[in-house]
């Protein structure tokens, strides 16, 4: 029953309209220091991210964010900080997944197909390593034991890497939620819009600079010489008999 409910929730999450701000492949480039911190201190990072996902209100805390059968039955209301510490150190994988589901359900975020393939590969590799270990224990072959140990190491490395990327993805998403992405830096204005130190006021286009307190000289040739022209108005203007008689003045 619990597995069917989990599958139903996963199906609903695939119908969400929003996407993660950064996919798993881009988290290392987006925030390398935090990704390294999550790789080496996974439980501590999981504690901080869960608390931040709850808006630092530990009264809302439930074990595994309410997505596991044990949720609400561990005395979380009495000592939520201690319960969260126990969760992240004893069930780190479930803790990271619960924080992920919490953010997905809050912001209607679906996981891309590429991210699903990476997470699925991690789970499959863990299962194959477990099967190899069981077979090697039953058969008792040294070669199978060595192969099983090598596969376990590879599965653990993949798990730690993917888990660190997932936690960095959660952190970036909460940075977006909290408005920590500032505006883009302004582009440098064109050169003609900038003023030099020795020229605080740019000159007017097409005019020479005027001395302080002196008007700009008029353009050469204006007004034209001998204006108005001679013999203006022409002789005989207006015509005789104009205006006609009877025209109101």
Automatic annotation (TrEMBL):
Keywords: Membrane, Transmembrane, Transmembrane helix. This is PLAC8 family protein. The chain crosses the membrane at residues 118-139. The keyword Transmembrane helix applies. Residues 215-229 have a biased composition (Pro residues). Residues 202-229 are annotated as: Disordered.
């Amino acid at each position: 029953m619990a597995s069917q409910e989990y599958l139903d929730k996963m199906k609903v999450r695939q119908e969400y309209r929003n996407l993660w701000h950064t996919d798993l492949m881009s988290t290392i480039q987006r925030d390398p220091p935090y990704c390294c911190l999550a790789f080496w201190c996974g439980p501590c990072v999981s504690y901080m991210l869960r608390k931040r996902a709850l808006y630092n209100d530990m009264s809302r805390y439930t074990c595994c964010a309410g997505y596991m059968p044990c949720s609400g039955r561990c005395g979380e209301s009495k000592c939520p900080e201690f319960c969260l510490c126990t969760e992240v150190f004893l069930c780190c994988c479930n803790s990271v997944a619960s924080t992920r589901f919490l953010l997905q359900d809050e912001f209607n975020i679906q996981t891309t197909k590429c991210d699903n393939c990476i997470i699925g590969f991690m789970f499959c590799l863990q299962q194959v390593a477990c099967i190899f270990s069981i077979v090697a224990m039953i058969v008792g072959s040294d070669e199978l034991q060595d192969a099983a140990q090598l596969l376990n190491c590879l599965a653990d490395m993949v798990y730690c890497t993917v888990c660190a990327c997932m936690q960095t993805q959660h952190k970036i998403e909460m940075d977006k939620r909290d408005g920590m992405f500032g505006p883009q830096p302004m582009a440098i204005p064109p050169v003609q819009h900038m003023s030099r130190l020795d020229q605080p006021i740019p000159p007017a286009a097409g005019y020479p600079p005027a001395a302080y307190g002196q008007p700009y000289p008029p353009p050469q040739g204006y007004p034209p010489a001998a204006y108005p022209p001679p013999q203006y108005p022409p002789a005989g203007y207006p015509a005789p008999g104009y205006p006609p008689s009877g025209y109101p003045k």
